[in-house]
Amino acid sequence: MASAPDPRTTTATGADVRVRFCPSPTGLPHVGMVRTALFNWAYARHTGGKMIFRVEDTDAARDSEESYRQLVDALTWLEIDWDEGVEKGGPHGPYRQSQRHDIYREVLDKLVASGAVYESYSTAEEIDARNEANGRAKQLGYDNFDRDLTDEQRAAFRAEGREPAWRLRVPDEDITYVDLIRGEVTFPAGSFPDFVLVRAGGVALYPFTNPVDDALMGITHVIRGEDLMPSTARQLALYGALVDAGVTTFVPRFAHMPLVLGETGTKKLSKRDPKADLFLLRESGFIHEGLLNYLSLLGWSLAPDRDVFSRDELVAAFDIVNVNPNPARFDQKKAESINGDHIRMLSEKDFAERMLPYLVEADVFGAEKAEPTHDQLVLAFRAAPLIQERLQLLGDAPGLLGFLFADVVAYEGDALSSLPANAGEVLVASVGALQVVPDAEFATAAIQDALAGALVSPVEEGGLGLKPRVAYGPLRVALSGRRVSPPLFESMELLGKAETVRRLGALVQRIG
User: Fold this and answer.
1) Active-site residue 271, yes or no?
2) Are 205 and 217 in contact (CB under 8 A)?
3) How far is CA 351 from CA 307, 311, 361, 366, in A?
4) How much is the CA Rg of the chain, to the nearest whole Å?
5) Burial zone of 450 (CB within 10 Å; 0-12 exposed, 13-18 middle, 19+ buried)
6) Helix, strand, or coil here: 146?
7) pLDDT grade, residue 1 (50/70/90)?
8) Who contacts 99 (Cβ-Cβ below 8 Å, separation ≥6)?
9) pLDDT digits (tens, 9 = 90+) for 124-140
């Protein structure tokens, strides 16, 4: 019969809620990690509670200061703020595990005094030998042999020069908890043996340091990935011991978020998949509003028929109990579409300012990574509204606007091959029509009227009688070198009469 959840489990709500984001600074921030931070943050903001950001940096071989700075950069860019922790401080610091060794030693001493942990001297070889002798599968691991060592036996091991590890005395009963996402979960008695908290030599391990930090920092809700769910039983066992030893007064609630799968929906999204790299997504042109919106949909939804919403709407509606336990699939096209929706919500000025770094990075303004001149800056701001309605990623802006700043048009192969047989005639007629437009009146409406009269109007009215698609396609190629460009007549206005006519004539010469 399953045991009931620990009656000491927290009932914290509202402003008493405390969640944490506690990554290891290894590698680049990825989608799964950031989704964890987002859901913790959204729950804290929704309840009026607090989010703590601490760093688990005790693996000297893998952790790096560069990765730590990237974590801070990622959260800052996404505007996922925190109330206590690294960079901010707070009453429960330090917030980096590498600076908390003395704290772990003090907690271990309390557990020793309470009898919750014991010295273990068994080597891996000895454990394997005992299992074999007892007909016990090696995969079952440690056999709790050292639980009942006598003082004389411990003294004998120490006399051999052995240093003890410290193991938790796991309760011999079922462990049950209610997952906020998955419901009641029970780990049967005997599911796992007594496990090491501190290695010989005093190295505190993750199964010890993580719950201890949560306990000392008053974390009420542990919101983390489904892949960590198997370790929950060990954490609950340790929490019971921490409460008994007076280290904390309650056991936190747990919530295990669904896995994030790759686009095929068949396996977990790899940390090494470019689509999982937060900074590659930013470099491609995601804005933080769009990416935050999409990441929140990886296991949660605002409403069945609504995918696009603001940060404030997310906070107002988010509750961890409404997260779907089923795996979520990372859909690049949907992410880009939602990002495009958020781009269109920006003011023209905001959009132009966010677009500029992408133009600089693509060398649109001339020399390598050159900042725009005053005239180029004015032109970029005038051109921005022409593409804001068309973009899904800011990284597409250089391809759409680069022609406005080029001295020589670079014709794309598919654009040239798309030209109709009468392209030369169309271009010549266009030059003639535009040349009669007064320089002072060379604006969108006048340009459109002149070209429509020359190209689209019936032959009997002096035009070529062409359909607009056929008429204007060659002009688009002449101006931009591409089949797809910003609105044609507005682009001509931005280029000016002389440059527009020059480019039309240049293509005439190119195609003979």
Assistant:
1) yes
2) no
3) 21, 18, 16, 22
4) 32
5) buried
6) helix
7) very low
8) none
9) 999 999 999 999 998 88
H helical segments located in 134-192: 151-159
* Distance between first and last Cα of the chain: 89
| 78, containing H or E segment | helix 65-78
Do 347 and 388 form a contact (C-beta atoms < 8 A)? no
Would you call 306 helix, strand, or coil by DSSP? Answer: strand
Classified as helix, coil or strand, 445 is helix
CA 488: distance to chain centroid? 37
Nearest to 493 by CA among 462, 434, 447: 447
Q: Is 271 annotated as belonging to a binding site?
A: yes
Closest CA to 56 of 97, 86, 100, 88: 97
User: Which residue, among 25, 36, 92, has the nearest Cα to 60 in the 3D structure?
Assistant: 25
Contact 248, 254 (CB under 8 A): no
| Side-chain half-sphere exposure of 222, counting CA atoms within 13 A | 29
Q: What are the tokens at 149? A: 């060592």
For residue 206, give both structure tokens.
């993750």
Longest pairwise C-alpha distance within the chain = 115
Q: How far apart are CA 359 and CA 365, in angstroms?
A: 7
Q: What does the pLDDT look like over 408-419, one tens digit per residue?
A: 999 999 999 999
Compute CA distances 221 → 15, 82, 183, 509, whole Å: 12, 15, 15, 71
Predicted confidence (pLDDT) per residue in 392-441, tens digit: 999 999 999 999 999 999 999 999 999 999 999 999 999 999 999 999 99
Count of C-beta atoms within a 10 Å radius of residue 287? 21
Would you say residue 2 has pLDDT above 60? no
Centre a 10 Å sphere on the Cβ of residue 292 and count the other Cβ atoms it contains. Answer: 23
How far apart, in Å, are the Cα atoms of 136 and each of 131, 435, 460?
A: 5, 94, 98
Q: How far is CA 334 from CA 38, 214, 298, in A?
A: 19, 36, 11
Beta carbons within 10 angstroms of residue 504's beta carbon: 22
Q: Residues 269, 262: contact at Cβ < 8 Å?
A: yes
How much is the pLDDT for 433? 97
C-alpha span between 335 and 481 (Å, rounded) = 29
Question: Who's near 403: CB < 8 A, 6+ residues apart?
Answer: 409, 479, 480, 481, 482, 485
Spell out the alpha helix ranges (H) of 202-347.
206-216, 232-244, 278-284, 288-296, 311-317, 332-345
Per-residue DSSP letter, 453: I
Buried b (16+ CB within 10 A) or exposed e, 487-502: bbbbbbbbbebeebbe
Contact 196, 161 (CB under 8 A): no
Which of 88, 271, 334, 349 is flagged as catalytic? 271
Q: In terms of pTM, does the model score above 0.90?
A: yes
Do β-strands 165-168 and 196-198 pair in parallel, antiparallel, or remain unpaired? antiparallel
Amino acid sitting at position 324: N
